[in-house]
Specification:
Blueprint: E1 3-5, H1 20-24, E2 28-32, E3 34-44, H2 52-62, E4 69-77, H3 80-85, H4 109-123, E5 128-133, E6 142-145, H5 150-157, E7 162-165, H6 173-177, E8 183-187, H7 194-209, E9 224-233, E10 240-242, E11 249-251, E12 268-272, E13 281-283, H8 291-294, E14 295-298, E15 301-304, E16 309-311, H9 317-322, E17 326-332
Parallel strand pairs: 1-2, 3-4, 3-5, 5-8, 6-7, 7-9, 10-11
Antiparallel strand pairs: 2-4, 6-8, 9-13, 9-17, 11-12, 12-15, 14-15, 16-17
């Protein structure tokens, strides 16, 4: 499945995402030389409907058509079949950001492709890894890490002072690269926002200019660190809506406005028509069911039982079904201990 090339494919800098599958023929690894030989690895379009990373790389590489990159760059252009349709992934496909080494699933050609990429980059002495994404709902630009280590946090805070530490879900790109080099996932806001493209472009260019990634601690006043403590899903058999009343769960129509806000205990997220039945699947880092730790039903209203901060709550019903409703977070100190 994987194409590997040593130069930019013809016309790459002018293509639209829906043209990539025809031009590239499938997922493609592009190795480009630079002044420093250890490559920066960048993945884009692991979700085919998230094009900010692609547009940012096009913008940056246009400026380097006639000059040398400051560091070698390997660009992985992921789910071009889904990109052609403007979808996260196609029916019958796995999620391209849940099938990297360490995933809970396996056995597909896509799983083998991701393992091959990791092995290839290990052999090239990869310098750092960056996975570029968009998200739905209202969220700030932020970076995600899978290790509480100084170089990971330095790489993350170069993008944003808002940093999220998580260890689930498994099989994500940043977690697969973490044993090899500092790795981050960066969330560049919603699709179609010009400042997201510019922010991603500036970040990648800054990383290409790094001679090394600092290994000293990030100053406490330069980072807001959060730990994803639970993921919230809606079970398949449960119907839901945002606003209205004709579903098992009717979430508030402004649910995404709660992202990255400290919610006190007693905050209402929606209503259930099944009496005292919560009907949410909430799992912690170890996969344990913890719905009662964070939510209760009070007179048909779904309320929080303790303070937390949500992220990635969105109003896209298809994405909720394919992935999740969102995540719950708690604050950490820069050393990884819970913030009092």
């Amino acid at each position: 499945m994987l194409r590997i090339v040593e130069t930019l494919p013809e016309g790459f800098l002018q293509l639209h995402t829906e043209q990539l599958e025809e031009r590239l023929g499938g997922p493609t690894l592009i190795h480009l030389p630079g002044r420093r030989p250890e490559p920066l690895f960048v993945s884009i379009l692991l979700h085919g409907n998230e094009d900010t990373g692609f547009r940012a790389m096009q913008s940056m590489l246009r400026d380097y058509q006639d000059r040398e990159l400051p560091r070698a760059l390997t660009l992985f252009v992921g789910n071009v079949a889904a990109a052609r349709k403007g979808m996260r992934f196609l029916d019958g496909q796995p999620d391209y950001n849940r099938i990297w080494p360490g995933a809970e699933t396996g056995g597909t050609a896509e799983h083998r492709m991701m393992a091959e990429i990791v092995d290839l980059m290990k052999g090239r002495g990869v310098f750092a890894s960056i996975d570029l994404h968009n998200n739905t709902g209202l969220n700030p630009h932020y970076a995600c890490i899978n290790r509480i280590e100084d170089r990971f946090m330095q790489l993350a805070t170069l993008f944003s002072r808002t940093v999220v530490y998580f260890i689930r879900p498994h099989g994500v790109q940043s977690m697969a690269f973490a044993p090899l080099c500092p790795s981050v996932t960066v969330e560049c806001g919603r699709v179609g926002q010009a400042h997201g493209v510019e922010h991603a472009r500036e970040y990648i260019e800054a990383c290409l200019h790094l001679s090394e990634i600092p290994d000293h601690p990030v100053a406490p006043h330069d980072i807001d660190l959060f730990h994803t403590v639970a993921v919230v899903k809606v079970p398949e058999q449960v119907s839901f809506r945002f606003g209205g009343s004709e579903a098992d769960i009717c979430f508030t129509e402004y649910l995404d406005h709660l992202n990255f806000r400290e919610l006190p205990a007693g905050t209402t997220l929606g209503r259930t028509r099944n009496g005292q039945v919560l009907n949410l699947d909430v799992r912690d880092d170890q996969g344990r069911e913890v719905a009662d730790r964070y939510f209760r039903v009070d007179n048909n209203s779904i309320c929080t039982t303790r303070p937390f901060m949500p992220s990635m709550f969105c109003l896209d019903e298809r994405i909720v079904r394919q992935d999740c409703l969102g995540y719950l977070m708690e604050r950490l100190l820069p050393d990884g201990t819970p913030k009092p």
